[in-house]
């Protein structure tokens, strides 16, 4: 499991910057108070010295080391109380010169006792949403918002789609390197994108790097790099197709198919299979149409290395328009 490395670097840098800004702002406020009160400046100098005194007392020898340590600690507490009272007498809050961190737990470092703080994990999850390629879809397309009432109960479609919903929910909860590749097959408007988006969100929430794109978008990225006209972002995308923990490729079959796109698709599929990195592909094509459209090397992997999940029903988008 691993967050997207670019997101991790960006979030870590943001935390380092935030921490330094909080410390620098505290230094400015302390200098402001020292200019108003030489007595406060003297207390702060004594407090700085007590840190070394506590350390020396803690490692001191002899029978009286505990008493010495207690005396230094008592002195430290007395100075802190005097400091707070003096700052308040100047008309400022007692913590005016202290660093004001956004997170009281990690003090804007991102870590507590060498473990990632929940605030940093939340920032990485939000960054994962942004870099996943899903945009605003994640706000509305969740497992909870998937409405089974659009699928007929009488002919069994609702039961089949209910099973798909639970299988994909479980897939998201158990996702890992050993998760199978999935091929979501069915006509347009049956919920493939909705459930893929819901699954992606949950997998990102659990700390994995997910990349979601259309087949057309993926081949456009490779095309840009091929002709040397790509931006830095477009050049990075082809690497993400291999390195992300989970790749979700939507609408396979809507792209213009040629030797170049076949080669790109084979490379992505083969690399991910060899690296044990799961892939989910959705398509409107049948198994027969896949064989007619793609090379044997591709179809053998789609059929042999992917579990097929069929989607049933009548176009939900049209039903929503009619209601």
Task: List low-pLDDT spans.
Answer: none
Give the C-alpha Rg. Answer: 29 Å
Helix proportion range: 55-70%
Query: How much beta, percentage-wise?
Result: 5-15%
- The succession of helices and strands, N to C, reads HHHEEHHHEHEHHEHEHHEH
- Count of beta strands: 7
Number of domains in the coordinates?
2
Q: What is the terminal separation in angstroms?
A: 43 Å
CATH architectural group of the largest domain: 3-Layer(aba) Sandwich
Task: Give me the secondary-structure topology.
Layout: H1 5-36, H2 38-58, H3 65-89, E1 111-112, E2 115-116, H4 118-131, H5 137-140, H6 157-174, E3 181-185, H7 192-205, E4 210-214, H8 215-226, H9 232-243, E5 246-252, H10 259-274, E6 279-283, H11 287-293, H12 296-304, E7 306-310, H13 316-322
Parallel strand pairs: 3-6, 3-7, 4-5, 5-6
Antiparallel strand pairs: 1-2
Helix pairs in contact: 1-2, 1-4, 2-3, 6-7, 8-9, 10-12
């Amino acid at each position: 499991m691993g967050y997207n490395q670019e997101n991790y670097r960006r979030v870590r840098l943001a935390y380092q910057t935030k921490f330094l800004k909080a410390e620098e702002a505290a230094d400015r406020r302390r200098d402001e108070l020292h200019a108003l009160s030489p007595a406060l400046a003297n207390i702060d100098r004594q407090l700085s010295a007590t840190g070394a005194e506590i350390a020396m007392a803690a490692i001191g020898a002899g029978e009286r080391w505990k008493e010495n340590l207690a005396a230094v600690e008592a002195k430290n507490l007395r100075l802190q109380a005097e400091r707070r009272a003096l700052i308040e007498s100047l008309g400022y809050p007692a913590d005016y010169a202290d660093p004001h961190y956004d997170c009281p737990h990690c003090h804007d470092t991102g870590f507590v006792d060498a473990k990632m703080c929940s605030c940093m994990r939340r920032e990485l999850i939000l960054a994962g949403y942004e870099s996943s390629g899903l945009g605003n879809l994640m706000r509305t397309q969740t497992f909870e918002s998937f409405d089974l009432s659009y699928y007929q109960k009488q002919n069994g479609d609702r039961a089949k789609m209910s099973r798909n919903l639970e299988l994909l929910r479980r897939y998201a909860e158990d996702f890992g390197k050993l998760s199978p590749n999935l091929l979501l097959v069915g006509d347009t408007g049956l919920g493939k994108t909705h459930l893929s988006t819901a699954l992606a969100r949950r997998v990102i929430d659990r700390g994995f790097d997910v990349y979601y794109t259309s087949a057309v978008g993926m081949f456009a990225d490779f095309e840009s790099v091929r002709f040397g006209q790509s931006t830095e972002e477009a050049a990075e995308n082809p690497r993400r197709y291999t390195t992300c923990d989970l790749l979700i490729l939507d609408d396979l079959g809507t792209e213009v198919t040629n030797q170049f796109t076949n080669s790109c698709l084979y490379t992505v599929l083969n690399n991910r299979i060899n690296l044990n990195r799961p892939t989910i592909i959705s398509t409107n094509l049948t198994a027969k149409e896949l064989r007619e459209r793609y090379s044997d090397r591709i179809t053998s992997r789609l059929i042999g290395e992917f579990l097929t999940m069929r989607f049933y029903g009548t176009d939900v988008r049209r039903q929503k328009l009619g209601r």
